[in-house]
Amino acid sequence: MRASPPKEIEKYRVDAVDAALGVLQLIAEAPDLGLSEITRRSGQSKARVYRLLCSLEASNFISSTAEKRTYRLGLAALAIGNAAERQIDIARIAGPIIAKLGSSTGETVQLRVRDGRNSLCVAGWEPERAVKVLAGIGGSRPMHAGSGVVLLAFQDEAFRETLLSEPLKAFTERTCVDPDRLRQVLANVRSQGFYVSHGEVSPDLISISAPVMGPDGKIIATIHIGAPTGRVSESLLPTLVETVRSAARELSALLAASRNPG
Amino acid sequence: MRASPPKEIEKYRVDAVDAALGVLQLIAEAPDLGLSEITRRSGQSKARVYRLLCSLEASNFISSTAEKRTYRLGLAALAIGNAAERQIDIARIAGPIIAKLGSSTGETVQLRVRDGRNSLCVAGWEPERAVKVLAGIGGSRPMHAGSGVVLLAFQDEAFRETLLSEPLKAFTERTCVDPDRLRQVLANVRSQGFYVSHGEVSPDLISISAPVMGPDGKIIATIHIGAPTGRVSESLLPTLVETVRSAARELSALLAASRNPG
DNA sequence: CCGATTGGTTCGCTAGATGAACCAATGGTT
DNA sequence: AACCATTGGTTCATCTAGCGAACCAATCGG
């Protein structure tokens, strides 16, 4: 069977399916919208959106609240998500390590992977404290800020450059949006093997990230802890960095082991 | 706007979308199958399945392992699932109550709702013990066995009868598959307000379930604890039953409160 | 009381999805 | 090593199924 000639996924896509999945993701991001609003945001025709909604609803991927005629995710979406958690190696294997890192540091932990040009949180852990960072599992954002920087640092140069050549969104005034400075930062991350971010994603938030590498030397994910700046003193930092790095190494090793069964 | 005339969801369904969602669910249940096997199981034509797979993959709902040409759920599925967990009232609100019930009894907890003619686990909790029942979040099975009995007991009579009129699958030799006896059991559950199941779903497993009711008197879910039979002595049972029932009542109240905001 | 907007429905047209047939590559069997 | 069944992937003429414009009745806000 043909091994390498790249199969042409793009040219076989079924338009109706793409549109439906788009609507589904729209509803995931913005629940409780009505037909008209969904139509507007999706840029499709109303009749089409309505039909897609019917199909999605009939399969229980979405459900419409009885009277208000407004849509949100349904039970099938729940089921799919939980199946995904079991099927996706990294989410499953990382679980225990994330929990350990969390309870030993007492701070929120996130595991993020590249999803297209975004950084997506695939697993997380939250401490039982009044003040904490939200884990936001399933959340997605550009990878040029916060722990995403680590993810970006270890991508192919080509990918990095195309991403740097586009306008970069500033989340706070501390977000680095200058390509040249960012290039410097990325080089630093590559040589040091970790990254500490101060208020780049939201003010008063500090995060410490380290890369999870595959046996082929490619990056798989970033693991990081996030804490309110007040809780991370200058003296505490080095210990935390080492704790995060060792968790990242441990996860890298476990993943490598799982790929070569036996 | 028309209030009651039932909108005709069925007749607007888009075939390609239905087929795609079917394939997606197939992959959720049985990951790591190849094109041919998926084609066989879905009963569609190979070309169609291939196109659907392309669309699903392009949107990251599934991903194909590089060389083995085999498919499993992708990152978008994860993201959707986590969004669903946040959007679906019952899954979100039940979280703390489930955890409390779990840690106070030391046994696995499940919250199950009706999904079509099945009972679907929407949330769960597992103890940190060597021997325990699996939570199986996202799992689905017929509702005539185990805690599903409670779900069935409080459905409309019409629904109950149509379900009873069909052949009932026996999971173990203790599963009740006789319509008449089952009718008796259901009546009992309705009058007592709880149900204790011994090895109906799998041997050596006991479960104690109570219904979560809506303000309209309709059933919303069942909450139950599941334990190895050996850990539940005759003398312990009454206390456990009361603990489960009170958790169910608490959840019912919380849900009622959330529906009438303010 | 009115105009704007909502969710839902109809219908004729044709773009686009469809399935049968085909291909090359692979792997187990003899 | 020659075989055959099976795999993942591709093509193309056919015709159906999805399409959007237009429409409807029910609400809502003012």
From TrEMBL, chains A, B:
Listed GO biological process terms: negative regulation of DNA-templated transcription
UniProt domain IclR-ED: residue ranges: 76-257
Keywords for this protein: DNA-binding, Transcription, Transcription regulation
Annotated TM spans: none
Source organism, top-level taxon: Bacteria
Molecular-function annotations in GO: DNA binding; DNA-binding transcription factor activity
Domain HTH iclR-type as annotated: residue spans: 14-75
InterPro entries (UniProt xref): GAF-like_dom_sf, HTH_MetabolicPath_Reg, Tscrpt_reg_IclR_C, Tscrpt_reg_IclR_N, WH-like_DNA-bd_sf, WH_DNA-bd_sf
Keyword Transcription among UniProt keywords: yes
Protein name stated in the entry: IclR family transcriptional regulator
